[in-house]
Input
Amino acid sequence: MVARKFGTGEKVKPASIYTMFLRIFEHARTEWKALITALTCIILISMLEFVVPQLTKYTIDTVIEQKLFNQLFYIGAGIIGAALLLGLLRYLSTSVMAAIGQKVLYRLRNDLYRHLQRLDVAYYDRNRTGDLMSRVTNDVSVLQQLISSSMMQLFTDVFTFTAIAVYMMFMDWKLTLMLLATFPFMILTTRVFGKRIRSSFRKVQESLADVSDHLQNTLTGIRMIKSFTAEEYESGRFSERTQRNMDANVQVTRLRAAYEPIIDFINFVGLAIVLVFGAWLAMKETMTVGTIVAFIAYLRLLQNPVRHFSRILNSIQQAAAAYERIVEVMNTEPEITDKPGAVELPSMKGHIQFRDVTFSYSGNRDGEVLSEFELELQPGEVTALVGSSGSGKTTIAHLITRFYEVGEGSITIDGYDVRDVKLDSLREQIGIVTQDIVLFNGSIGENIRYGNQNATDEEVMAAAKAAHAAEFIESFKEGYDTQIGERGVKLSGGQKQRLSIARALLKNPKMIILDEATASLDTESEQMIQTALAELLNGRTCLVIAHRLSTIQQANSIYVLENGRIEEHGTHTSLLARGGRYSELYDMQFPVANGH
Output
């Protein structure tokens, strides 16, 4: 199976099982004391596995033959003692490996999440949120069983198999070789079924990601679903996805149901060889009955790892399929990073220039949003962008913050090309307030403090007061500890916007970007927000993106954009007097003015 690099069309080779185990070991090697304890348990378990067959051989060939009644107690005690020690060692090894497994999963999941935080905004444009959630939760969890129990069983079985095979060669090399002749058939069967099972498990994981993605979309949009009475429609779509997941799981079960009986059949062939050939040797008196019984016991011990592996194979292949999906994310490198030699951007004054900037979200000229674009923002002034939807206004804000990279041309801030400065030093000096307000499920205080994690309670309250949010916050019974629900569902639009302004104020940025900050508010809320914004914009360079022309009449400069180009610019008064595109937009919004 050929995978594709996540979020691109580039083909990549699937991650090998060897690579998966190597990466797991890299995470686990810091727990070397626990690993040594587990390895010691494995060796002791394998040694104890030899005891019972040897006691059986001794009982048949010596105790029974010589009628040594006084030895029976010791033989029984030896078998029970070995069983107790095996139980204790298996408990210890399983507990230790489970602890190691959980630590490995903890680190792997954190590494994956940390890597997701590094990836560009464009990456999230290309990939579904639900699928990413599934990789961090479901796919990492699939590795848990493999690391916690299956890996322990696998290591034990490999060691036991090797030790017993070597010992059986000393007991009777001809009989052992006849037995081992069946193993190539097991290996071939495992390879054939392993590839198919792994491919099927990948379909299981992908279909589960579809279920997760649909669930995330519908639960966050539950109000819209109910408003359109689309419950049955969405239930049907969900059923289709769970049907695909069910079919994928059934396919895995069928492959497993076919694989395990074949392995069992080959094991019985090995048993038949030992039993028939061993009986023939015993009848010719070249092998004792006790040796045959012991050999059969060792055969069962030799075949147990094979049986275990046939069952562990499902865990390994399922984990490998999940690991491939994790690696696809981990191997995706961010396209926008600090270049070698990038410098810290000094305290921003706010002189921003776009020079011959060309940009396309698709990366080709057919979908250019900006073409040879020129723009200049003066420090300490308010610059407004207006124009039709799709004219490139929000794109300009995204390019200043380097959420996306320019295709051609350059953007400079105070003479520094944004590509030559460190991303953190750029973004920490820019505050953004948008129409689509993002609030996290938590308290009001926590959401405001997101602007500055080290802010004191007094600073949080001062920011809320400056944003004209303190009054409604204090009206709540729990004040700043009030839980606002997912995405601030318990607050009105105006309240959420004032919280976002308070958050921006607490950040204390050098530059502010207002992207349709008041577009969805009623007149009363807008007036209150405008008052709060006046506090926010004081002494800062500001870029305002607006459809409502009433919000930008006091701007120092207004640029009218159409199709990625500046059609006209000036002040509110001069643009109205010119009677161009800005005047047309103004007349559409304020028809009563009739001639302004």
Remarks:
- Residues 439-508 form a domain with the Rossmann fold fold (CATH 3.40.50.300).
- Confidence is low (pLDDT under 50) at residues 1-14.
